Amino acid sequence: MNNILSQPQFYLPFLIWSLVWKGFALWKSAGKKQLIWFIILLIINTSGLLEIAYIFFLNKWDLDNGKTLKFLETKFKKAKK
Questions:
Q1: Range of 58's domain?
Q2: Which of the listed residues 9, 14, 58, 74 has the most CB atoms within 10 Å of its CB?
Q3: Residue 41 near residue 29, CB atoms below 8 Å
Q4: What does the H/E/C string look like for 59-79?
């Protein structure tokens, strides 16, 4: 008897679903220069749930007002000199 969970075509729709939402959320966070959200979305895999929450709700709040990115930019500029 074939187990449905052992067949790759069972996972393909979930993989596509997750990749589409993750890609869109990463694109939005990179466009808004929200480094912390980019890292969180890149590392944590929630099958699209965190990504959907970010796209529709969480990205509207600029929690650190870009301070994280500005800090990292100044840190790396000093290191290059």
A1: 14-80
A2: 58
A3: yes
A4: HHCCCCCCHHHHHHHHHHHHH
